[in-house]
Amino acid sequence: MKNKRIIVAVDGPAGSGKSSISKEAAKQIGLKYIDSGAVYRAITWYLLQKYNTKLNPKEYINDLSDIAISQIFNIDGSCSSFINGLDISEEIRDIKIADNIGVVSDNIQIRNYVNKLLREWALENSIIMDGRDIGTVVFPDADIKIYLDASVDVRAHRRAVEYREKGKDVDIKDIKKQIALRDKQDLSRPFGCLKKSPDAVYIDTTKMTKNEVIQKVVNLISKLQI
Ligand code: DC
Hints:
By secondary structure, this protein is of the alpha/beta class. Helix content is 45%, strand content 16%. A hairpin with a 2-residue loop joins strand 4 and strand 5 (86-87). Helix 2 packs across helix 3.
């Protein structure tokens, strides 16, 4: 990678392949991968532990003063999340997190807190970060912005395969409903909603293989190094 710090922003809806594509591109090019969704998940996990109940919309920002969130992009291409040193990478993928995360990711103060953290994490390295608002809000000056998309059916199918690979028995109809709901929440969020930045490269992955998408993303980023 050339000397200048490079910022790659990858946005798109749930199940569009953002994280797996970004991690693989990071490995191939030598970038640090940062998972912004995992930060919202970590905060949701923490608040659920603290209140031990379904979360209600309220000001949670004061609750964040005594937590330290960190992330490590591992050599094997996986990404680990920590709160106060505790590894919660598995816990934040629980369905309970997805059911409660809306209250957290709709909160403007929490969003500002997360955005500050994400920008700090990107200070030292060339990075690729995935999320919903990376190219629009977190890094509007990113060196390259990529928006990954795919039909709801294909996204639901990919998610179901992921769950099954982890040994979880899932019904594709439930996954499709969950994805449609996530789309609705992501698109209607008052701040930091899912939106393609006008200067983002749009990639419809519906009919592409994972390797084709990785190659396309790697090629786009590689052009920056000239
Ligand atoms: O990418 P993910 O599914 O792990 O994200 C979890 C949730 O966090 C998702 O419901 C939307 C929210 N999110 C967000 O609001 N802004 C981001 N930059 C990333 C995720």
